[in-house]
Cell division control protein 73 C-terminal domain-containing protein (Lotharella globosa), 224 residues
Amino acid sequence: GSGSRKHARDSSSSSHHHHHKKPKLLGVSKILKEFRDNNGERVVLKSRDSHRHKFVPDKHSPIIIVPSASSSLLTLYNVKQFLEGKSYLPSREIRRQTPKKPKAVHVKHKSERNPNKQIRYVVIDDPRRLTYEDWNQVVAVFVTGAEWQLSYFPFKNPKPKEVFSRICGFHLNMKGETPKKNIGVWNVKKLEIGQQRYGDKETVYAFWQTLIPFQKARFPHLYI
C-alpha cells in the first residue's frame, strides 16, 4: 500500500520536474490577438522564432519601420537626421560618409508626460528580424505604397486597412511628385518635403503630432 503510494508520489514529482524543462514559448501579443480576432484569421508568423532573442532588447522602446530600398526618401541612413535633427538630408549624402548601413538607429524624442525625459525610438528597415515580442512595440511604419512591404508583417494576408488601424502609417513624398496609387487609398499620414529645407521642421512636427496620440491610445505600455 504505502510503497505504491510512494511510487506514485515519485513519478508525479519526476513528471513535474520534466514539465519545467520544456522550452518556454513566447506568448501571442495582444495586438496580434486583436488582429486575428477582428480579421477572423489565425496569426501566422513568417519564421519560427520562439527560440530567437528579441531583436530590440529594450521592452519599452517603441519601434518604427522605414523602407529598406536605398532609393526611398527616408532610410536608416537619414532617419535620425530627419526625425531628431528636424532637417532632411538625402540618404546618398550620408552614405558617402558612412557607407555601412546600421541594423538599427536610435531616435530620441522628448516625452510629453515628463519633459525632462526622452523616449528612445528604435528604427529598423527589416521587419523579418523582429520576433513576436518585438511586434508588440511596432508603433509606426513608413510606406512607399508597394504592397509587398506589408507582406513581411507577421499576419496572415495582412490587409492595409487592418495594418494601419493597429500601426500608425506614414508616407513621405517629395513636393511635386505623384505618390503611388495606394497612398491615396491607404489610411496613412502623408508628409511632404520640398527642395528647400525651411519646411522640414513643420513636417517633422506633423509626424510627432500624429504619432504621439496614436501611441497613447494604442500602446499605453510604451508611452513613457
Summary: The chain has eight helices and six strands. The first strand starts at residue 63 and ends at 65. Residues 2-21 form the longest helix (20 residues). The CA atoms of residues 34 and 90 lie 38 Å apart.
